[in-house]
Amino acid sequence: MSGPAHPVLPPLREVIARHNLSASKALGQNFLFDEQLLDRIAAIPGDLTEARVFEVGPGPGGLTRALLRAGAKVTAVERDARCLPALAEVADAFPDRLTVSHGDAMQVDATAATGGPHHIVANLPYNVGTALLVGWLESAAWPPAWASLTLMFQAEVAERIVAAPGTSAYGRLAVLAQWRSKARIAMRVHRSAFTPPPKVMSAVVHIVPKDMPSGVRPQTIARLTAAAFGQRRKMLRQSLKALPGAAEAMAACGIDSERRAETLTVADYVALARVIDARD
């Protein structure tokens, strides 16, 4: 039994040529044209039938089309006004399934934009991808309104998100992504898949929330990791000396203050934060 028919849209390359769209370096744009690859990315969150999806930087709408084909209702935020006519054509082809706004995703509340629980799926612009991710990970409300994050990053950033303690990639981003979420690299994407090809390889990271450890405030984890990894070459007694309660917390947790930030596990940071918060 075949699925529902999808509208026939012109190839992305034709759309880009017709609208004279060239990827903007200033906006960190790189376009994906391979529809099979885009469909694979859209499948990573699972069944999106009637699910709300928030997309950042859809560009000419390649991933947007794939999400719509997967049955999602998409709310997209695009900063580049040149792409809006191409996106309007996609919206016309999928009536009442796509809402596009012109703006900066850094200034947009995804929950307010989508109207409720949602997935976030995006080929993130390289220049703001990490900042957006940190904002979503530091949500005070937990579980968050997003059910999953499926995000394309430079491969180096993706490795930092999933890194294990003691590795060169392990840092603040790994702790923020892993202390109350599960993060994995779902797919690696060769640079040749993009137009224009970036200088680096890319990877899609999939993140789902898990239960939040008790007795820990997210702002404490944020301050603790910022201090520890902000001076990662220094011993913890030095990097954390300005953080109230950190020295006492290390003693209470049996963590040697002469260790360095990258040697502590995610559980160690949670334990330290719990002791600090218990003092307040």
Question: Descriptors for this entry?
Answer:
single chain, 280 residues, alpha/beta, Rossmann fold, Helicase, Ruva Protein, domain 3, 2 domains, 12 helices, 36% helix
Tell me what you see in this structure.
The chain has helices at 12-18, 35-43, 62-69, 84-93, 110-114, 129-137, 155-162, 172-178, 218-230, 236-239, 246-253, 266-279; strands spanning 31-32, 52-56, 73-78, 98-102, 118-123, 146-154, 181-189, 194-195, 202-209. It has 280 residues and is an alpha/beta fold. The protein folds into two domains: 12-209, Vaccinia Virus protein VP39 (Rossmann fold, 3-Layer(aba) Sandwich), CATH 3.40.50.150; 218-279, rRNA adenine dimethylase, C-terminal domain (Helicase, Ruva Protein, domain 3). α6 (129-137) links the parallel β5 (118-123) and β6. The protein starts with 11 loop residues before the first helix and ends with a helix. The model has no long low-confidence stretch (mean pLDDT 92).
- Highest CATH level, the class of the largest domain: Alpha Beta
Helical percent range?
25-40%
The DSSP helix count reads 12
Principal-axes shape call:
elongated
Number of strands: 9
Poorly predicted spans: none
How much is the radius of gyration in Å?
Answer: 21 Å
- Identify the strand order in the major beta sheet: 4-3-2-5-6-9-7
CATH architecture label name of the largest domain: 3-Layer(aba) Sandwich
- Under CATH, the topology of the largest domain can be stated as Rossmann fold
Mean pLDDT: 92
CATH superfamily of the largest domain: Vaccinia Virus protein VP39
* Termini gap: 61 Å
Strand content: 15-25%
